[in-house]
Design a protein that fits this description.
The chain is an alpha+beta fold. 29% of the residues lie in helices and 37% in strands. It has one domain: Nuclear Transport Factor 2, Chain: A, CATH 3.10.450. It is built from four helices and six strands; from the N terminus they run H-E-E-H-E-E-E-E-H-H. A six-stranded mixed beta sheet has the order 2-1-6-5-4-3. It is globular and about 50 Å long. It starts with 12 loop residues before the first helix and ends with a helix.
Length: 151
């Protein structure tokens, strides 16, 4: 079962929206400490860049993202829940140390285990397209290339 001192007994769309909006601040470094207890120790995380297994590697990934970014904000646009799966659409604005902010548009599928913790997270987004769109002239060339090669 989830710990008694956590603010939510059951994760749902509203709880995820509130937790994730706190994860990424409006000024300063992101902080996952309040949401990590909601993840299973054997978390399987996958996105367009990596696949991670286990809480130690997941925590290390969040620390790398914090170290690389100057600022991060997250807006959960909408979400749905069916059975033990929560699907959310989000907009994440990230500013790296030497580059202007980029908005990444994506979705996450969160699968809860029998204890209500996140056992699997799969993030879907176009990392390079969303970042390249913010680089003058390069973004347009990238989109033209993608259209020509992939339709």
């Amino acid at each position: 079962m989830l710990q008694d001192d956590l603010p939510y007994k059951i994760l749902d769309v509203d709880a995820i929206t509130q937790l994730w909006s706190k994860t990424y601040s409006t000024a300063g470094k992101p902080d996952w400490s309040h949401i990590l207890p909601y993840y299973d120790e054997n978390i399987i995380f996958r996105d367009s860049v990596q696949e991670i297994r286990g809480m130690d590697d997941f925590r290390a990934m969040t620390e790398r993202l914090t170290a690389r970014s100057k600022d991060l904000t997250m807006k959960v646009v909408r979400g749905v829940m069916q059975d033990n799966v929560i699907f959310i659409e989000w907009e994440m604005t990230i500013s790296y140390k030497t580059y202007p902010g980029s908005v990444l548009y994506g979705c996450s599928r969160l699968t809860l285990n029998e204890h209500g913790k996140i056992a699997e997270q799969r993030d879907y987004y176009d990392l390079w397209g969303d970042i390249f769109d913010n680089i003058p002239r390069f973004g347009r060339a990238y989109r033209k290339f993608m259209h020509k090669k992939f339709g």
